[in-house]
Amino acid sequence: DVPFDTTIANRWAPVDQYIGGDDHAVMHLIYARFWTKVMRDLGLVNFDEPFKRLLTQGMVVGETFFDDETGKRVYHKPDTVTVERDGKGKITGAKTSDGNALKYAIERMSKSKGNGVDPDEMVEIYGADASRLFVMFAAPIENELVWNEAGIEGAVRFLQRVWRQVNKWQAAVAVGSAEDSASAKKLRQKTHQTIKRVSDSFEELQFNTPVAALMELSNAIGDVGEPETADDATKTAVAEALKALVLMLTPFSPHIAEELYSVLVGNENGIVANDARFPDYSEDLAKADEIQIAVQVNGKLRGLVLASPDATNSELETLAFADEKVVEHTEGKEVVKVIVVPGRLVNIVVKG
Fold first, then answer.
1. d(CA 139, CA 129)
2. Residues 149-188, buried b or exposed e (16+ Cβ, 10 A)?
3. Least crowded by CB within 10 Å, which of 11, 267, 317, 339?
4. What predicted TM-score, i.e. pTM, was given to this entire model?
């Protein structure tokens, strides 16, 4: 009698998140919206739109080589072309195997243009985890991605560094301490700031910034020194940081993350078998000791001051007026008003 169960449809729809390229967003989205409104008018569903949120992902584009002497473009596959580049990798010229000059452009990948890439070749050389990590890190999801495999070596080096860090520290005894040492406190703060940053980025479907955050956390782990000279509190902080790092790495590089997690927990089981969960962060531990406050005079940036995250408006004003650069632009002038944006900005309006 009906095409579907209305109760079930109203439970599962509308869809929480729609993701597609610009062509799909136009063709599919308009089509889906039309039929949703038809079914709404027929009383089959109780919602107006098929999707709650839309994300139009950027397209992957690559180097394209062609000649158009006949008035029609004839494409040449990159592996059949001799390419000249400058020191930054930018194309400066291209020729066929028999020396004929070719034109070149950056265009959307397609079979007809011969500018597509086979990910199996990258996986064969670098592994699936490094390939996945590289693709996620290459550009924000909504931006156009100009394909350049040179960057994958950075992803490989990062995974190798994490592997070395886990295996270097896994034998260190993390017994904890009644009070964090300075190095332990700094690392724990960075760990929980990273968890918050990565969690927030996932909520917004950003995948390149979490990779950058994980690289920063790995660097912070490297800054604490060697296991042999670390105090108990630092060992505990490193164990917490590495476990969080591996768990947050899982969506990007699941295979190596499984291996490393089994090393950290000391058994053969990885993340799935241990029923591990994404780490939670502590607001108190993630809170910065000091934050940077911009100081403007008549709307122009004149100074930067460091303040406690809990500083009051009057305390921020005092710090702003004490800054040497700000003094230069306010001395001898009438202060009309001071606008304070807590945690971000102090704007001093003067005349004269």
1. 17
2. eeebeebbebbeebeebbeebbebebeeeeebbebbbbbb
3. 11
4. 0.74
Q: Is residue 14 reached through a cis peptide bond, with omega within 30 degrees of 0 on the bond before it?
A: yes
**Max CA pair span of the chain:** 84
Q: Which amino acid is at 59?
A: M
Report d(CA 225, CA 287) in Å as an integer: 24
232-272 pLDDT per residue, tens: 888 999 999 999 999 999 999 999 999 999 998 887 777 88
What token pair was written down for 291? 């934050």
Q: How does DSSP classify residue 306?
A: E
Q: Quick one: which of 217, 165, 212, 215 has its CA closest to 187?
A: 217
Question: Can you tell me whether residue 253 is helix, strand or coil?
Answer: coil
Please give the structure tokens belonging to residue 11. Answer: 């439970």
pLDDT tier at 193, thresholds 50, 70, 90:
very high
Does pLDDT of 150 surpass 90? no
